[in-house]
Amino acid sequence: MGTNHGLNRAALRAGLLGLSTAAALIVAAPAAMAASTDVAGGSLDWGFKASFRGYVSGGNGTPPIAATNGAAINADGTFDFPAGGGTYDAAAGTASMQYRGTIVFSYPLHGFTITIANPKLVVDGDGEGSLLADVDLTATTQPSAHVDGAELATVTTTAPTVTDGAVTFSNLAAKLSAGSASVFGGFYATGAALDPITASASASAGSGPTDPTDPTDPTDPEPGNGSAAQTIKAAVAGGALTLTSAGSDVNLSAVTPGQTAIGNLNAVTVSDLRGTNAGWDLVGQVTDFTSAAGTIPAANLGWTPTAAVVAGGLKAANGVQNAVTPGGPVTPGTGLGASKTLCSAETGSSLGSSTCGAALNLGVPESSAAGEYSAVLTLTLA
After folding, report:
1. 371 vs 305: CA distance, rounded Å
2. Total domains present in the chain
């Protein structure tokens, strides 16, 4: 079974279906903003999802990721959008803050261009919020689509930091909204963790979150009599995100119509040696099972994923905690005819190697003819 690092093109056919519904469900900022302040300055820093940026960056776009109309790309690859209006209430911790700028993800070889523009953060003061934006999808497999004010993410909010009347909402947890999963080709499931959001707003232009001060380098100690110090330097270059499989063939148990054939997926190993701790997702989708006698639909293949971190013999880097999460079980009948998560590692916990596997179960319909059936399961890593 070969490795496929590309986005599932067929999934792009979902396009922006459902985004307009999601946008219609966004509720205006609550009445608690009666003492609101008009936004004149500030910025929003967000990167959508680090693993998606890494995937698109390796593509053939010119460039793969571009920032225009006031947006900028930060040194760490995330995006900066300047304030463009809205209001906030520092006392109530509520806000409806508009930002300006456009980000374009382009991957012509994989047949898509995705544009995100003019993000808006809505915070209700009760621990919940939404990130909205104008979204465009152009794909080779379907007509172009455009939605204004689509809900890209649901946001878990915290009380803002208030400084001289300006507010900063820092590192807000964000998850992909149900209506927006399809714009990214169905590659990320609803509720997938996205990059954290930091947003600021002030009543005067030019105000924004202050960059933290660089720590002062420690002073070298004075050498004593008869001692010497040597500085040892080691350059560590970023590697690759790779997927390997322990085998290419899986034989399920022999059954009769109406029974369930079982077996195990060959174990696969994901190695994240990029040095960015950006996170990754591994998903799978199967074709229909075919034989000379007939077809068994792909949806009849289910799985129960497993995942574990590969332990190494070296002491882990300070503060690094690796973790891998198996995808949810999928039952025959609603199975792998659509892309499903086998395992994933979130941003901040993906470095190192992990193994993923699954118990497979194929429900064979009573209407199936006898024969030797086969299908191809494709695993995609990004």
Report:
1. 28
2. 2
